[in-house]
Amino acid sequence: xxxxxxxxxxxxxxxDILDLLVRLKGDGISISEMERIGQKFQQAGxxxxxxxxxxxxxxxxxxxxTKYAYILDFFDTSxxxxxxxxIALKRQDLAADGKAALLIALEGYGIDVSSPPFKQEKxxxxxxxxxxxxxxAMQLGEEGMVTFLDDFLSYPxxxxxxxxxxxxxxGDSQSPRLLEAMLWHEDRDIVHSAVAxxxxxxxxxxxxxxxxxxxxxxxxxxxxxxxxxxxxxxLGVAVPQPRTLLPFHSGYATPPDGDGYRSLxxxxxxxxxxxxxxxxxxxxxxxxxAAWGAGELTLDNFSAEVDGFRMxxxxxxxxxxxxxxxxxxxxxxxxxxxxxPADFYMRRGIFAGEDMTxxxxxxxxxxxxxxxxxxxxxxxxxxQRLFADSFFSGWFMAEQRVxxxxxxxxxxxxGDQVLERFCTELLAPELELIRERLLVCADLxxxxxxxxxxxxxxxxxxxxLIDNPLPHHLHPFLRRFAHESMEIxxxxxxxxxxxxxxxxxxx
Length: 507
Hints:
Blueprint: H1 11-24, H2 31-44, H3 46-58, H4 62-72, H5 81-90, H6 96-108, H7 130-139, H8 141-152, H9 157-169, H10 175-182, H11 188-198, H12 204-216, H13 222-234, E1 248-253, E2 261-269, E3 274-283, E4 287-298, H14 299-312, E5 316-318, H15 320-333, H16 342-346, H17 376-388, H18 400-410, H19 415-427, H20 431-447, H21 452-464, H22 476-494
Antiparallel strand pairs: 1-2, 1-5, 2-3, 3-4
Helix pairs in contact: 1-2, 1-3, 2-4, 3-4, 4-6, 5-6, 7-8, 7-9, 9-11, 10-11, 10-12, 11-13, 12-13, 17-22, 18-19, 18-22, 19-22, 20-21
C-alpha cells in the first residue's frame, strides 16, 4: 500500500471557528475586532464559510445578520452571494429588521433589491405559526429542513409531537423526507410518532421510507413499521420496489489530535455518477459532535469538496469499513446525549444495510504489532520523531489551563516545576486516554502504509505510559507533549490571541 502522509493538523482551528461565531454574537464588539475575526475566517477558507452561511439561514436578529454579512466580505463573493440571495428570497419568517439587514447587504454588492423578485415579497410580520414554520422549512429544501430539524431537536416533547402532526397533515411532498430523519432519533416516542405519521401519508414516498426503515430498524420497532406499511397498502398506496444498495465510494479520516478530536468522511454511490456524503467531527469520549452532508454530489463536486476539506483537515484515505467502525465507536460514546447533530439524522441513509450497533473501537485493537520494551533513549528518540512527524502535528492540548501554564513557563521561572505540575494536573488524569489515543494512531499508521516497525514502537511507547517508573514529567513522550502544548499556547499568546473559549462544541 502506498504510504500516505495526509494528516489532520487543524482540529483546533475548526473549533476556533465556533469560538469566533460566539464572539460575533457578543455585545460591544468593535470594528477592529470584527476585522481580526474576518481575517481569521478568511484564513480558514471554505471550512469557516459553511457554518457562517448556516447561521444566516437561521438567524433572526438584524444586528447579527449585519455582522455575518460583514464577515462574508472576507470571502470571494462567488462562494456565497447566490446563497445570500436565496436566504433573502426564501426566509419568510424574518422580522422587518432582519429582512432589511439582508437587503441592505445585497444592495451593497450591486443587487437591485427594488426589482423583482425582491419587490414581490410579502412584508415580514415578525412571527409565524408553528405550521407555517414547518411549511416554510420544507419549501427551503434540504438546507431549510436541516436548519428546522436542528431547532426541532431542542423543542419540548409536546411541541415535537405537534410538529410531527403538522408534517403528517401538511400534504407537502417533502414531509416523508423530514419524518425519515426523525426515525433515527434516540427518543422512542418520537420514532413511534414518526412511523405512525408516515403510515397516514398517502404517498408512495412515505411507503418507500417505511420499507427502507423496516430493512434496517431493530426488532422492537419492526412491528410498528410493518403495521404502518400495511395501512398504506390497504389505502391503495403503491409501495416502491425495494431499494438497491450501492457500494461505498471512499472513506477518509484524520488521526486523533492531542485532545481526542478527529474528522471522518464517508462517501457512498448514489447513482451512476453521483455520491452521497457524510462528514463528521467526533471525540473519543463525547461521540458525534458535528456533521455535514450532501444527498447527491457529482464526482467532480465531491473531489472539490474533498480538496476543500484537505486544505484544512489533510484527511487520510482509508477503507470505508474502517470509517464504519469509527462511527459505531462514536455512537457508543454518544449514548448519553439527548440527540445527535441534525445532519447526521438527515444523512443516516448512507449507512443503509449496515449494522450500526454502537461498539467500542478499541476492543478491535487486539492484533497491533508489538516491539520489545523500549529503553529510555529509544523512547526519547521516538518521541522526538513523532512530534516532528506531520502525522502527529495535532498532538497538543488547547484548553484554558494550558495557556495558564504557558504564561508561567515563558516567564522563565521554575521550568521543571511548571512541567511537573502540567503533567500532574493535565496529563496524569488522562493517562489511559493518551495511551488509547497512541494505540489508535499506531493502528492508523499501519492501515495507511506507514512502517510496521515504527507502528510497533508507538505501541511500545503507549504501553510504557502504564508501567512507567519515572515521574510523569520525566517520561519522554509526556514531557514532549507538555512542551508542544505550551509552545503552541505561547505562540498564540505572543500573537495577541485570546485563550480559547471552552465548551463551544456544545453549541
